[in-house]
């Protein structure tokens, strides 16, 4: 009888241990994701400057090439003249102190989750292009500087194309995505010449929306949680991809990203806008976890109207 009681006590304890492991497993997995974030390598580079050789600088060069700041960089960990120039250009684009070194503010900005579209394409497009605009009702001495940009070659939809159709890849949770994307498209429609209409024909739609994971066949693979959130192509390609490995929510959430805010940004790319250095603009490249960004800034409006003037 005593052996039977001991057996039941042992089984009960094992079941408690198993339940505790199952309870903690999601938390342990989440911690692992945090440690392996795509931009994690940046934290070990603080203070690096020209003339040094530091392990991890090659990853930084790949990062900067991905977003347009370097071309055909040397595959090494040397902090050379070209890397310093690329960092200075990055700092200018993000309104940081132009030191050319990896100071804390620069690394903090580089570490933020962001859009996968480059800040500079073919060396011709820059977020800090600084188009000066004088408003007609202001005094002659008052000017504002726009920071919107366009893709290389300034691609745009033809003048006859004012209605753009969009469709979701079959299998996408359309019931959740439809109202989100509809609201985002309507905000852009209100400040531009475009109208948007959903279609069921994915193959012939002007804009194709899908959730993709890793290497998904377009030469721009996603990198897992916390790195590149999404990317979209310039006119008239029309592809719009979310990274399926991110935690997506409708609305702000402390542990994920708002699908509508990202839609607002990527639609700007689909229409032909590049990135802007104005922090409040929709076309600013980064989005913080737990935030919503739905209101078009005047810089966004000036950009789309300038592109299709």
TrEMBL record:
Any Gene Ontology CC annotation: extracellular matrix
Name of the protein this chain belongs to: Metalloendoproteinase 2-MMP-like
SUPFAM superfamilies xref list: Metalloproteases ('zincins'), catalytic domain, PGBD-like
SMART domains given in the database record: ZnMc
Cofactor: Zn(2+); Ca(2+)
Region (Disordered), start-end ranges: 113-137
Start and end residues of each Peptidase metallopeptidase domain: 153-309
Annotated Zn(2+) 2 binding sites: 115, 265, 269, 275, 283
Source organism of this protein record: Nelumbo nucifera (Sacred lotus)
Catalytic machinery residues: 266
